[in-house]
Design brief:
This protein has 250 residues and is α+β, with helices and mostly antiparallel strands. 29% of the residues lie in helices and 18% in strands. The protein is built from eight helices and twelve strands. The strands form five sheets. It has a four-stranded mixed β-sheet with strand order 10-3-12-11. The chain has a two-stranded antiparallel ribbon with strand order 1-2. Strands 4-5 form a two-stranded antiparallel sheet. Helix 3 packs across helix 7. The termini are far apart.
Length: 250
């Protein structure tokens, strides 16, 4: 090997060594006492079944104006502050619609729509935004560099950027400053075998029954049956993103 080749190999080895040290440092970053992203990732359930498509059907005729039970439940489940300033994370928000021509009003919750063709995944430069085999769209906080391209690409304004240090966070829902986050369809619940999300559970317990969660691919599930029997639409159907969240009465 020539002297030039030897020097090149040494430089390559040095770069590899540096990247290895940097990666180890990032992986070991503590989010809060006792919580590290790398440990959560290693403990996650490996894989998700492509036979399943998790989704929601939201009946707008049952969603009451001024009711925020689903929002409150989401905040509690995921350790969110519940604030509504630009620097606060909102994984679900209530939106009030008014049809100008008729004056008809409607209230509906909006969250990540868990698209089959998610634009947030398309624009992510690191692969941090990804879609699981079961249709749940998530953010890998190991890879997220906080560029916020996904926030700009999302037509539903469903993603938030974490501006501040996170304290007293929940072990099942790790969060970190400088990353993007959004509704996960309570993936921690799903992976441990629970049958519903926090928002759907709260809506049912309050007696509204406006949110149905389940497997869209299972013809025997309540959500699949309802989708067959009633007219429902996704938000911004014109974009052809095939969201996993559908709205009845839209």
């Amino acid at each position: 090997m020539s002297e030039r080749e030897t020097q090149g190999e040494q430089r390559t080895g040095s770069r590899r060594g540096f990247l290895g040290v940097a990666a180890a440092g990032i992986a070991g970053v503590m989010l809060a006492p006792g919580i590290r992203l790398i440990e959560v990732a290693q403990a996650a359930t490996p894989g998700a079944s492509p036979k399943v498509r998790w989704g929601m059907l939201i009946d707008m005729t049952k969603c009451a104006t001024g009711c925020n039970d689903c929002v409150t439940a989401c905040n509690k489940e995921n350790g969110l502050s519940g604030g509504t300033s630009p620097t606060d994370s909102q994984w679900i928000r209530k939106v009030e619609l008014r049809q100008v021509a008729t004056g008809r009003t409607a209230s509906l919750p909006v969250m990540c729509q868990h698209c089959a063709e998610p634009p947030c995944v398309d624009v992510c430069p690191t692969g941090a935004s990804f879609k699981r085999a079961d249709g749940i769209v998530l953010v890998d906080r190991h890879s997220c560099i906080g560029c916020r391209y996904c926030m700009m690409a999302c037509p539903y304004k469903a993603r938030s950027f974490v501006h501040d240090e996170i304290t007293n966070q929940l072990p099942d829902v790790p969060r970190g400053k400088g990353t993007v986050e959004s509704c996960t369809l309570c993936v921690h619940r799903i992976d441990r075998g629970d049958k519903t999300t926090a928002c759907a559970e709260a809506c049912s317990q309050a007696g509204h029954g406006a949110i149905v969660f389940g497997d869209l691919n299972d013809p025997q599930s309540e959500i699949a049956r309802r989708v067959r029997e009633v007219t429902s639409r996704p938000l911004r159907a014109d974009l052809q993103l095939d969201p996993g969240v559908r709205y009845e009465g839209l």
